[in-house]
Write a structure and sequence with these properties.
Layout (H helix, E strand, L loop, with lengths): L3 E4 L2 E4 L3 H12 L5 E4 L3 H7 L3 H9 L2 E2 L4 H9 L11 H12 L5 E6 L4 H12 L4 E6 L6 H11 L3 E5 L4 H9 L7 E4 L3 H5 L8 H5 L3 H8 L4 H4 L1 H18 L1
Parallel strand pairs: 3-4, 3-8, 5-6, 5-7, 7-8
Antiparallel strand pairs: 1-2
C-alpha cells in the first residue's frame, strides 16, 4: 500500500506519475474492481459539504493529486510531501499507451452526446491497438440501463466523465457490480480527447498554471475558481493550528 496523506480529511496517495501508472496496471491484474479518483482543490472543498463524495474518495483504491494546489498543500502541512502533480488526463493517456498492445478493453461514459464516441475514435487512432468496446454520453436518465450496457460488453476499464461529484459517487455506488477491474473518474477529459476543448499550452502545465489558463479562456469559471484561494487559506490555517499544539 502506498503512503497516504490527509488533506482536509481527504486521503491522497503519495505517488509519482510513473508509480500511479504501474499501480493501475497492477489493478488490471487483480480480481476485484478498483476506483481511481483525481481530486483538485475544488473537489476537496466540495467534499467538505458532501458526505457521499468524501466517502467515495476514502473508499477509493488510488487517489492522486490532479491540482498543483494539492501538491502545495502537502508542502505546507506536516508529514509526507506529494512528489508531483499527477494530472488525471495525463494518467489516462499513459494508461492508453501501456494498454494499447494488450487485450485490455475500455468503455467511455460521459460528456455531451457524441463526445465520448468521438473521443474513443480519436484515442483508438492515436494509440494503435487500443481496444474500446463502447461509449455512452452522460445525459442519461436510467442508470440501470447504462449499467446493463456496461455489463454486457465487460470492459476492463471504465472511464467516467460525469464531472465531480457525480462521477465519484456513480463509481462508488456501482463498481462492485460492474465487470470492470478499473473505474476512473476523468472529469472533462473526453472534451479534450475529442478535440472539442484545447488543453493549456505545455508551459502552463509545467508551471502548474493550467487552472489559470482555463480561467482566462473561460471567465465564467470564476465562481468555481474562487475555491482555490479559500482552499489555500484553509491549509495555512490548519498548518498554523497544528504548530500551536
Amino acid at each position: 500500500m502506498n503512503d497516504r496523506i490527509n488533506i482536509m480529511d481527504v486521503p491522497i496517495d503519495v505517488v509519482t506519475m510513473d508509480e500511479a501508472v504501474l499501480k493501475l496496471l497492477e489493478f488490471l491484474k487483480s480480481e476485484q474492481s478498483h476506483a481511481v479518483f483525481t481530486p483538485n482543490p475544488e473537489i476537496i472543498m466540495e467534499a467538505q459539504n458532501n458526505k457521499d463524495l468524501k466517502q467515495a474518495l476514502k473508499r477509493a483504491s488510488l487517489v492522486v493529486p490532479d491540482g498543483i494546489g494539492v501538491v502545495l498543500a502537502s508542502k505546507i502541512l506536516e508529514g509526507p510531501r506529494l512528489p508531483e502533480r499527477v494530472a488525471g488526463y495525463d494518467l489516462v493517456q499513459n494508461l492508453f499507451k501501456s494498454a494499447a498492445q494488450t487485450d485490455y478493453t475500455f468503455y467511455f461514459l460521459g460528456g455531451q452526446e457524441g463526445v465520448a464516441q468521438k473521443a474513443a475514435e480519436r484515442m483508438a487512432e492515436q494509440y494503435k491497438g487500443l481496444k474500446i468496446v463502447g461509449s455512452q454520453h452522460g445525459y442519461f436518465k436510467d442508470e440501470k440501463e447504462i449499467i446493463k450496457k456496461i455489463q454486457d460488453v465487460k470492459p476492463d476499464v471504465l472511464l467516467v466523465g460525469l464531472g465531480a461529484p457525480k462521477q465519484e459517487i456513480f463509481i462508488d455506488k456501482y463498481k462492485d457490480i460492474l465487470p470492470c477491474k478499473l473505474c476512473i473518474g476523468v472529469g472533462g477529459s473526453f472534451d479534450v480527447m475529442a478535440g472539442k476543448v484545447k488543453r493549456a499550452p505545455v508551459i502552463f502545465q509545467k508551471l502548474g498554471l493550467e487552472w489559470f489558463y482555463r480561467l482566462i479562456s473561460q471567465p465564467s469559471r470564476i465562481k468555481r475558481m474562487i475555491r482555490l484561494p479559500i482552499f489555500m487559506w484553509n491549509i495555512v490555517r490548519i498548518s498554523a493550528y497544528n504548530k500551536k499544539k
